[in-house]
Structures are given as C-alpha cells and as structure tokens.
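quick one, 676 residues, struct below
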Amino acid sequence: MKLHESVNVVERSGEFEESNFSIQASAKAFFILSDGLYSNKIKAVIRELSTNAYDAHVENGNVDTPFDIHLPNRLEPFFSIRDYGIGMSHDECMHLYTSYFNSTKTHRNDSVGCLGLGSKSPFAYTDQFTVESFQDGTKRTYTAYKNEEGNPVFALLNEQETDEINGVFVNINVEEDDCWKFKDEAENVYKWFKVKPNVQGGNLNMSDSKPLLKKDNWELVYGWENTLVMGNVAYPLDEDQVDNQKLSGIVLHVDIGAVDITPSRESLSYTKQTKDFLSQQFNNITNSIVAAIQEEIDSEETLFDARMKFFKLSDKFGRTQAAAIHDNMKWKEHVLFPNLNYNISMGEKGDSRRYYVTGNVVDTVRLTSESDIHLDTQCIYVYDDLKRGGIGRTKEYIKDTARVRSCYLFRNIAMDSVLAALGCSKENLLLTSELPAPESRSHSSYGTTLVKKLTVTKDTDGNSVVEWKSEKVSVKQENAYYIFESRGKLESCWNTNIRSAMQLLHTNDVDLSQYNVYIMTPSKGKTMRVTERSNWSNFYQLFQSKTKEIFEKNQDAINRYISVRKFDKDSRLADIAAKLPSSHRLSMFFEDVNSITKEFGLVSSKLDKIVRAAQQTDAYKVSKVDFQATLDNILIQYPMIVSLISHGWGALNEDEINNTVDYIHLMDKRARHEVV
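---
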C-alpha cells in the first residue's frame, strides 16, 4: 500500500551543526515494535499474517484462491497460515524477517502491507514461531525466536527438496486457554475478507448479515457503529473525527491506500487527507439515501402521503438514519418535517382530541392551543362529520382495529383547516359517518348480540397479530369461549395480556381457527347466560389446558434452560474459570453451561413466554438439571472461593481474579500431593 507522503520545505537562516535521529536496535525497541504495538495481540497476529497471505496471492496473480488456516484446539494447539504465493528465497527470508520497516509493497496499491511490521507480529503473542518457505522445489524451515537479551533472531533450520506448491507456511504454538480466543478473533477478521480461507482444526462463522441497503461501495447494516473496510481489514470510524457522519450502521468499502492507517493497523490515522476523504464519502452516502427516498416520495399525491411513505421507507433502514436525513427531505418544495419529533403545528383545533390505545383501554387527551399533531403510521386521523355519536364510533373503532396506537379525532372545526394542516386529501381522513355504530344496549338472550370476536393472523413477516372484530353472535354458537372484561380490564383470573396469550398459542402451533373466542362485559355475559350454557366455556380453562400441553412438549428444553439461566456468563465464577486451563473441572463446567446457553440463544424468548404463561396456571412444574450440585462438588475443595463469591457486589478486578486462580492452582497441587 502506498503511503501518503509529504514534502517539507526547510529554510535555514544560517549554518548549524546537525545530526539525524536514529533508532538503536535493542530489546526495548523490538518490544515496542511487536509486543507493545498491538492492544489486541491475538487479533493482530491473525490479521497481519492473513493480509500477508492475501498479498502473496496478489503478487502471484491467484487472488481468488483461498489460503489455508489451522485453528488451535485442545488436540492441536497451534495456529498456522499457508499461502500459495510465489514463496521466498533464502535471502528474501533472511532480509524480510530481520528488517523492521522494510517492505516490498510501499509503491503499489494492490497490496495491503506497507510498513514491514506484519511478518514480525507473532512476537506480539509468542517468543518463538516457525516459518517454512516453498519455492521452486525447495523447502526451507526457519525458526524465529527471542534470545537471552530479548532480541529477535531468525535462523535457518533445514533445507530440502519438495514437490509442494510454492508459498509460505507460518506456525505459532498457542496456549490452550487461548484456543477459543483465536476462534473468536478469526471470525472477526475473516468476516471482512472477500475470499474466505480454507479452515482446518475447527469451524468459523464468516458469513455476513444481509444488509438493509446496498450500493456500489457501501452498505447499511443493523448497528450503531460505522466501519471502513480497506484491503480486507475493518477499521472502526471515530464519529468525532469525521464531519457529515450522522448516519450509523454504514460499512464503507474503499480502495487500498485511500486513507491513512496507524502502524498497528487497529485504527485509522486521521490526517487531514483522511478526514476530507471520509467527509466526502459520507456526504455522498447521505445524498444517495436521500435521492433514493426522494424518488419514492416525489411520486406521492399529497404531502401527507409523502410523509407516510417516508415513515415506511425509514422503517426499512431505521429511524436513526431517518433522523439524520429528514431535514434534507422535501415534497414539491414543502419541507417534509419541521422537526425530529415528526410533529406539525395546527392553529384552530375546535373540540379535537387524541386517543391513546393500550391493549383494550382507550385514554383521551383534549387538544389545547399548545398541542401539536404527531404524525405516525400507527396513528389514524378521523374527522367527525356527525352531529352526535362520533366519539363513541371512533373509540369503538380504534379498539377493534389492530396496530392502531393512537388516533386524532377532529371535531367542531372546518374540514379545510384539517386538510391544510395535515397536508392531506379527504381520502386520507376517516369520517365518523363511515364508521360502524356501537352496539345497541337492547338485545335478547335468545337472539344475537354484538360482541368482539378475537382472531389471530400472521403478517407478511410471519409475526402473530391479534385483532378484535365486532361481530354478532348467537347464544347457540357452537364451540364458543367467552372472556369477560370490565372497563377495559380482563377478569381477575388473568394475569397475562390476552393478546400475549393468543400469540403464545398461535406461535406454538395451536389451531385457533377451531375455537370461537369472544370478549364481552360480565353484564352482557349474564344476559346471554353463557356461564350456564353447555356450548359456551371459559377461555381461561382452554388456555390452561393448552399451556400445559405446550409446557409438557417443551419440558426437557425448559428444564435445561431454567437450570443454566442463573449461571450468567459474566458472573464472578465465569471470570475465574476463563483464566484456568480448558481441561480444569471448573473451566469445563462453564464450557458445558455456555454451550447450553448458546443452544437456547435463538429460542430463549419463546421459552421465557412459555414459562411465564405456565407460572400462571398449574402447568409449571420444573425438574431442574442439577448443575448447582455439580458446581458445589467442584467448589468443595476451594473454600476461599465460596466465601469470595458469597460476599460483596460487582465483578472481580484483574488482581482478584489472578489471585484466585493462583489459589486454585495451589489447592490443586496440594490435592495431587496428598494423593501421592
């Protein structure tokens, strides 16, 4: 990679004695340039050796060929990389590995390397590693190590004939406790490589999540951080260093050499040239998103429709992004939104009011002269064109309509004023005269009565949606179930939201289409005498029965899930176990717990809902897998740990963890001595 160089013009006022700065080759200097250079040493080793392998393939013209890596594991605790480049001669090996800041790639922008430091990066993790070079039928084996003074040494061990393909093989021994760290960091590194390596010794998840929006050199993903990718290496972007970086979740792909980097390659060097480049890139990205949305908005017939279209599009890539660009959006010279709250001012309001819907409860707020009108896709806008009855119709309608969270009812105000304020046409407003009239109070227990029937469907994303539809029902309805509500509250035996209850059954494959479930007031139920009729049953009893079936079906999984929930991965004991060898009993215990926790990662929310529902019925009976007894048997020989974790608050600091690990090793040594 070409480095951006500057030319200094120096004016001297006279002749002075001068001496150029130099660097003394010492153990201290080598420490700073290898071990002291990287904050994340394991990631640095993987990244630097992998980019060197990529560069070797670039030089050889086989950039689409994957290189090979070996992940460390318990049986084979080493990390290695084998590329299929042109290999290196003996002179090249001896020169490259013994010279810092000497690189063959500083005058080309198709290679990632440039500083002559990456090949020495293994010294950040270990004091010794092995290099093998295969070139034109000759295999040479070298060892790199630190001598007695701490200075790095590179030595030829062996030279022999070979029929292996040209290239370089680098091998590093890994501490057994670090095997999982190498795996985790390898996933972080190779996620960004266009050509994924061949992996031996383990499995890696190197797949990228599907972007929300993708363009030529950037994409929008879920997340709060922005990332720059250059030469297969990802760099976090500092929002304080770059102008125009209002967006988040941006992954920006740039050509090698486009920006400056720090020697560690862990971050960018925010030179003026880099800042100016990034500022321009984010300006282009913002303009690109604005243009894409603007094209959609321009096709709408009214300002109101344009605003609703903006909401729908911004939901696709996040309201945070929308907040960053909303002030750039216009519809036919009209500013789309005057503020980030998506509120618009309205002068005359008459006797208008806003309704808030929570479950089946509707709260009312009268609009004052200071009130703004909030715009949202989950809000509906109603104009009262009736002399009376409009309020009742509106409240009944929004209770029966799924996904409505609030509603504005405009009363005693000219319709033209409402249309002008909202920027809408008459078609965007609901009229109270078009809404169904509330049920009549007069009904017969032998005829039909208007109640709310509860149904569950699935939306386009596969999510369960509960809806209440006003419907006339006969007392002779077969297979009917009732739920009593009074003033928006369900009967006292319910401790769960009816919406959640129905969704629980629906998502666990209970066929609700065979049941007719109705919500009614107790007085209406009394009039219909549903509690006395054999064709009517209390839905709560059905819920209890089905919840019990669901619970029993998932019993084994719930037993294991409940048993491991208490062992949080960030607990004190887990921090201690992470410092122990992977073969230690305490470390193996938490490895088992973590494997179960990961197993339930995607279904834990579902299991939690089943457990909560079962706890409200007689179905909740858990036989926990006795992990605690296993842990107690391990800790019995470490009494100091029991005292440590049972007192105090918060996480242990590094010294406390290290001291505890030393104590465990001491007790283990004493136990072995007693056995002997």
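Confidence is low (pLDDT under 50) at residues 441-446.
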